[in-house]
Amino acid sequence: MIRGVSDEDVRAGQFRYDVALSFAGEDRAFVEVTAAKLRELGVRVFYDDYEKVELWGKDLYEHLDYVYQRAARFCVIFVSEHYARKVWTNHERKSAQARAITEAGEYLLPFRFDETELPSLRRTVGYLDSSTVDAATLAALINMKLGPRVREKYFPPEPDALFEALDATADEEKEAVRGVASGFMLSLGRMTEEERWLLGTIFAVGCPSEMPQNMHVELDIIRRDLAMPIAEVQSKLRGMSALGVEMEIRESGDEGASHEDATIAISWSDHTIHPDDSLAQEFAFERSTEIAAAMLEVGMDHYCLECARDRIVAMDFSGLAQND
User: Fold this and answer.
1) Nearest to 284, CA basis, from 271, 294, 275
2) pTM score, two decimals?
3) What pLDDT digit, counting tens, does each position of 254-273 carry?
4) CA-CA distance, 69 to 67, in Å (whole number)?
């Protein structure tokens, strides 16, 4: 634990980064691939090239001390002869080691390019090395080390569970699904957290009998599940029309029925233009709601209500990949 950051805070995403990478410039080519692969996996990584604007004008001595001592859950040190003789890498190492001294579990994760010794880094500390682990594999191992977590705005590179749910087997079908899914991610990103959860709840509890046209559900169920007045539900959904969300209120025909007995039908349309992919454009017109519903259903499957909410709000669709 460090400066009031508990294990619970770590699990809740208290740290700004999942991992910070400390390396010498001569080793950048390898580290750059690792950083790119980590990003693909939805890992929040501190890699200097990704932070150019953030670092611009800052007191780097002070800021890097903060990053390597306080801002990340893990720190990977890329050990090499170049690393050992650089002023800035030694500063980063000392900051990381100051954190490691007070940490109950692992924090420093050494990766070796050679047998160079670093001050205060014991040879008994488990390490990986470049003779047996390439950059992509290292990224995958870091991701495994991080374990299950909520990722922000994450769509897996290979959403095979989504393809299976939509019976998309041909490569062109998969690309079309990816195109529409990208449009849905864009729409979700423009919504508030409460709007995302409202839409996710409707798709989760709604009836799919009229798919791919819409999902429908009784308004009273949404009111009860979200503890949100019906008027507010309708207002929020109307406010999402520019993002492709369309709403239809179907009043009950039963005698004496109230407004609460009405059913709401929701659809989503991909407004993204796919000029170079005619099948994606066709899917956008005909299957947008179906793909969006499948993303929410498959992506949030196996989670409890609270965890599903966290992932919808964060736009974490890691569940769309069977082995992510």
Assistant:
1) 271
2) 0.74
3) 655 556 678 999 999 998 87
4) 6
